Every structure is written in structure tokens, then in C-alpha cells.
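FW: tagging you since you asked about this chain on Friday. Here's the raw sequence from the shared folder, copied in full. Didn't touch anything.
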Amino acid sequence: GGPGMASLKEPLLPNRNVVPKGASAVQTALAFAVFIAVRSFHPIIIDISKTDGKLPYGKATPCVVNSAVDIAIGNTLALLFGGMDGLKQCWDPVPLKIFSAIAVVYAFGDFLEMQSMAVMGGAAYQILLQSKLLVTALIMWGLRGQRQTTLQWNVLVTIALGMSAFVLSEDSSDEGSFQPIGLLFVVAKVFFSCLCAVLAEKHLKAFKEMPIYAQVAQLKIAWLVTSLLLTLLFDRNVREDGFWSGWDSRTIVVAISWVCKGWSTFYVLKTLDSVLKNIGEAAAILVIYIFDVLVADAVSDILPVHGKDFHIATCLMVLVIVLTVISYTLASNLEVCLTTRTR
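HL: got it, structure written out here
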């Protein structure tokens, strides 16, 4: 994909992306640390905002607030860096039509993420999110005829089996917090994310010269409208008790987390290649699991969190999934390198 696409969404499958020459090892290390932190703490923050295991606020209301804040930030940056011409660029109707169509799909993805997190913990969500590798491989096969090697299919099936084992072990634990509908939400979220990547790669190349803050400002207009419509349609408490029903200081932190996740992702995607991104996603599973098992109980007096018991079988499953995702990523990267060399 071109720079415009890369600035918004990571490439579909691990590939041999060249990190910009200006990116030093320190920058890359910092971006990698930020990426893991954001991917880890975002689900943890959503977990902390739960009351008795449920989200007390309209599930997508933080996404609506996030979109509104991003529009304000994008337009402000455009005005500061580009004056009135920069501001007009944020409302240019030609790219706005294309950005709006893609933003609708993004908004569905965010909505499904909150629906998923409402019925499962952060660790389970982050693990099930790795199904994106399998879904993406199938989409690439169907749309582009790009097949995986037998080794890659074996690794993908191993990831799927590992995820299934983890979810079943969670379901049989005392928590019983996982609900099967959550799996449907995550798979749908993954599908929408992969669809976004395909659409972005196909349509955003023409607008790669547009500054990232102008792209965000344009994307977030339809994103805001779609998120608000989904909230009004599916959240009864928002319709009955108002938009801010159930909001407290924790919900504000969730909204801030969404904003930080978005903008830090735009920075990180320009600095990291897709191999490090996939490894970072896998590392986030470990961070969330360590928080649940070792940290949560220690901070339960300060934060409304409940730790999970340490089970060696669950720990081993987490490690198997993390290492298998990393193996798939490295194997895919090696395949690309070898193919390039033999040409």
C-alpha cells in the first residue's frame, strides 16, 4: 500500500515494509513500547470501567465522544499548520465522500469492540483479536488469490485451536464471564477491520499527500454520525436515560484512552513495520494477562478491579498463542524475503 493507506491502517499481512530511513533504533523502540502499552492498557481501562462485570454506560458513547474530540483536534491542527486553506482541506467534498464510506466501516468496528468488551475480559478479547491473521489470510485468498504456504496454514490453525482452548478454559473457570456472543462480536470486529484495510489500501492512495490530521478530521465526521446512530439504535439506556447515563470518571478515562489509541496508532504505524506491529499485538496479550494475575489484586484498593487466579494451564496456553503468532509473523516475513531474493 501507499503512504496514505499505511498512515491509517497496517498492511493486511506481515510483509517486508521498509521503515523510513529517519527512524532510528531509539524511535523504533519507543514506538514499539508505545504500541504495546496502548494495545495493553486500552482493554484494561475498559475492564476497569465495568461495574459488577458490566459496562454501566452506553457502550459506544466513548467512541462518539472520541470522534467529536478527534474532529476538533484535526481541524485545530489544520488551522494552526495550514491556516484557512488547511481548514478548508478538512471539509473538501471530493475526498470526504471516500473517507466517509470507509469511516462507516471503522465505526462498526469500534462499536463491535465495545460490545465484545462488554461480555469478556481484556485478555480474552486481545487473544481472540489474533483471529485477524486467519480472517485476513482467507480474505486475501478470496479477493486476490494470494495463498498461504502449508506451513502458514498449519500455524494459523494452531493459533485458532489455541484461542479456542483459552476461551473454553475461561468459560469453565469460576468467573464464567465469557459469553459465546462475544466470540461473534470479535469475529465481526476482525472482519470489519480487515475490510477497512482492503478499502483503505484501494481508495486512499490518491490522497496520500493530505496531512494525517486532515485525513483524521475527514474520517471522523461520518465516524461520529455512524457511532451516534449505532448508540441510539442499540443502547436502550441511552434512549431512555440520556447520552451521559452511567458516565463517571472511569468512563471519561475510557474516552481519553480511545483518543490516545487513535493518535498514537497514527504515529506508530509510520514508524513500525508490520512484523513489529503483529509481535506488539501478541506481546499485549502477555501484558494484560500479567496485569490480571499479578497486578490487579495489588491495586484493587485503588481501582475497581478483581485479579484472576494463576493456573499453569492457562498461562501455558497464553504463551503458546503469543509464540505462535510471533512464529507466523516471522515465517510470513521470511517467505516474502525469500520470494523477493529468488526473483
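FW: Residues 1-19 have pLDDT under 50 and may be disordered.
HL: agreed, and The chain is about 75% helix and 0% strand.
FW: great, closing this out.
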